[in-house]
Write a structure and sequence with these properties.
Length: 79
């Protein structure tokens, strides 16, 4: 299967929730629609979640962990 064929198949699967009734005057069942949306979001974002963090971000996080800041107290307004 070529990339174009795969893209066409993927876009076709995005057009309507699987197992949801056709929208002939009625909306798909809410639960089926929410499940479908959840599956699509996981499909899109799973790859991003599995990507490693860039080195500069990791360095920043390590520096923050090494030097935690103390919470600052808001200035009181007397006057």
């Amino acid at each position: 299967m070529t990339n174009d064929e795969k893209d066409m198949k993927d876009s076709a699967s995005l057009s309507s929730p699987a197992g949801a009734p056709a929208a002939r005057g009625g909306a798909p069942q809410r639960e089926g629609k929410e499940d479908w949306i959840g599956r699509q979001l996981r499909r899109v974002f799973d790859d991003a979640l599995n990507e490693p963090l860039p080195d500069d971000i990791m360095s920043l996080l390590e520096r923050i962990d090494e030097h935690p800041t103390e919470p600052t107290k808001p200035e009181s307004k007397n006057g």
